[in-house]
Amino acid sequence: MKKGLTLSDYRSLAEVRYQIRRFLHFSEQVSRSAGLEPRQYQLMLAIKGLPPGVRPRIGELAERLQIQHHSAVELVNRLGTGGFVRRRRGGQDRREVLVSLSSKGEQTLRELALHHHEELRSSAPALLRALKRVVRRAKAPLVVQAQKEAVSRAAAKRKMSTSKSRAA
C-alpha cells in the first residue's frame, strides 16, 4: 500500500467525489420533484433491481441502502401509505415480510429511472475519466513494485548463470 498521497492523488479523489455528488444531487432533485424523498426512490429501485433469487425482505433492502433495519421499515411504511409498495407475508415463514412495487410504484420508478438513465448518459464520461485517474494513480505503485521485483529476479538469474559459467 502506498505510504503517502501526492497533491495529484488528492485532486483525483476530490474529482471522483465531485462527480458522484453531482449525480446524487441530480437524483435528489428529480426524486423530490416526483414527490418522493431520495431514499424512497432508492428503495423502490432496490426492490426492482434485486439480483435473481434474492427475496425483497426488509433486511435485504436495508443492506442494499446501507441503512438500519428500522429505517427501512419506516421507508416501506411511507411508501406503502403513498401507494407505491405492497407488503405480503412470506410463504412458509409467516414472520417474513416481502415488499413489492404497486402499479403506481412501477410507473413512478420507470419515469424516475428514465431521468436517471439519461443523466448518467451525459455525466458518465466525466465520472469515468475521474475514476480511471484514481485507479491509474493507485495502480502506479503496484506497477513500480512489480517492475522492481522483475528486475531483481532477472539480476538474480544473471548472477546465478554467471556463477555457474565461472564454475564450469
Based on the model shown, name its key terms.
elongated, 168 residues, mainly alpha, 5 helices, Arc Repressor Mutant, subunit A, two-stranded antiparallel ribbon
Describe the structure.
This protein starts with 6 loop residues before the first helix and ends with a helix. The chain is built from five helices and two strands, in the order ααααββα. It has one domain (7-130): Winged helix-like DNA-binding domain superfamily/Winged helix DNA-binding domain (Arc Repressor Mutant, subunit A, Orthogonal Bundle). With 168 residues, the protein is mostly helical. Strand 1 and strand 2 form a beta hairpin. A two-stranded antiparallel sheet has the order 1-2. The mean pLDDT is 88.
Top CATH class: Mainly Alpha
CATH topology: Arc Repressor Mutant, subunit A
Cα-atom radius of gyration: 26 Å
Number of helices: 5
CATH superfamily: Winged helix-like DNA-binding domain superfamily/Winged helix DNA-binding domain
Q: What would the principal axes of the Cα set say about the shape?
A: elongated
Layout of helices and strands:
Blueprint: H1 7-33, H2 38-48, H3 58-65, H4 69-81, E1 85-89, E2 97-101, H5 103-167
Short description:
This protein has 168 residues and is mainly α.
